[in-house]
Amino acid sequence: MKDLINRLIEKEELSLQEWEKLIETDFPLEDLFLKANRVREKIYGKDVYIRGLIEISSYCKNDCYYCGIRCGNKKAQRYRLTKEQILECCEIGNQLGFRTFVLQGGEDPFFTKERVTDIIVEIKNRYPENALTLSLGEHDYETYGEWFDAGADRYLLRHETADRNHYESLHPSQMSFENRIQCLRNLKEIGYQVGCGFMVESPGQTSETLAEDMQLITKLKPEMVGIGPFIPHQDTPLRMEKAGSLEKTLKMLALIRLAHPHVLLPATTALGTIHPQGRELGLKAGANVVMPNLSPKDVRKKYSLYDNKICTGEEAAECIRCLKLRVENAGYKIVEDRGDYKQ
Ligand code: SAH
Q1: Which residue CA neighbors atom 6 of ligand 1 most closely?
Q2: Distance from Cα 140 to the centre of ligand 1, integer Å
């Protein structure tokens, strides 16, 4: 494995088979984590960027088999934030030092092109120095273009899996793998900083599909990659499946950092959910971003993508205080910065 890891560090591209071998072989990971951390520190130092996550709607027209807010889940509690509530979250976030806001939600038809544009314009008007990220699912080229022109800087759209058959096993037939990938290409072309990503150990995932994920990332060259363990949600068809492991998630984080030294890589809430020190360990394995929740406290529990999600009971100020300590204890520091991609 040493040889393959060194080739990654030398910026060589690995074949599908080589990726598969690296992913499926069990070997002690300490050295891999140290190397990934070294690469991250060379580019981003000890800095950790924060993104204020505002979960604008738990309505969704899609029916992804893994997701707690899928339209087929009749037990899901639905809410959507008003423009005023979203702006209120931004104001609180800005005062707490956030320089990036992320608007995320289910694919809620209420949030039309026009409504979202109006919100983007107002946020950029009030906080021209801050970056704005959208994570609102699949839309047409024109819509993405209009949101970009209105001032959105970045877009997160996890590809979920780069393997078509695997994709189809996780989504109903109304959803299309091609469209997901096309959306990512469109976002790139329009000029967004783009994030793709996947769940680790989602049902049906194999070393081969993960190898395909790694190759897709190499091809797409996203500025951000969001990965976290799959965690079952009790009211979804995948409720009986096992959650992804800490080890595998950390290993994938480290491999992504080594293969893409400059990438913005969050230690996700899902990682913090499967292990009390998950996010800290993620930072030590190469991650350099955390995404605390800025949603109003009374809706947090309703944005339930998976079971036992952490940080659903605190105010934003408490969350950031707790996270600052955690990040410092891990040997890093949260900075007040937009945290753009460094070329
Ligand atoms: N509707 C938006 C936002 C989706 S929620 C979109 O389509 O992009 C953000 C991410 O949460 C998803 O992309 C998915 O990878 C992750 N997610 C959903 N359900 C999950 C689960 N059960 N376990 C872990 N992650 C999950």
Answers
A1: 137
A2: 20
pTM of the full structure: 0.98
- Best mutation site among 158, 241, 274, 295 for ligand 1, i.e. most ligand atoms within 8 A of its Cβ? 158
What is the Cα–Cα distance from 54 to 65, expressed in whole angstroms?
23
Residue 67 CA to ligand 1 center (angstroms) comes to 6
Distance separating alpha carbons of residues 330 and 51, to the nearest angstrom: 19
Ligand 1 centre to CA of 315 (Å) is 23
* Nearest residue by C-alpha to atom 18 in ligand 1: 67
Show pLDDT as tens, one digit a residue, over the chain (343 residues).
999 999 999 999 999 999 999 999 999 999 999 999 999 999 999 999 999 999 999 999 999 999 999 999 999 999 999 999 999 999 999 999 999 999 999 999 999 999 999 999 999 999 999 999 999 999 999 999 999 999 999 999 999 999 999 999 999 999 999 999 999 999 999 999 999 999 999 999 999 999 999 999 999 999 999 999 999 999 999 999 999 999 999 999 999 999 999 999 999 999 999 999 999 999 999 999 999 999 999 999 999 999 999 999 989 999 999 999 999 999 999 999 999 999 8
From the alpha carbon of 67, which atom of ligand 1 is closest? 19
The ligand 1 atom at the shortest distance from the C-alpha of residue 231 is 23
Which atom of ligand 1 is found nearest the CA of 157? Answer: 8
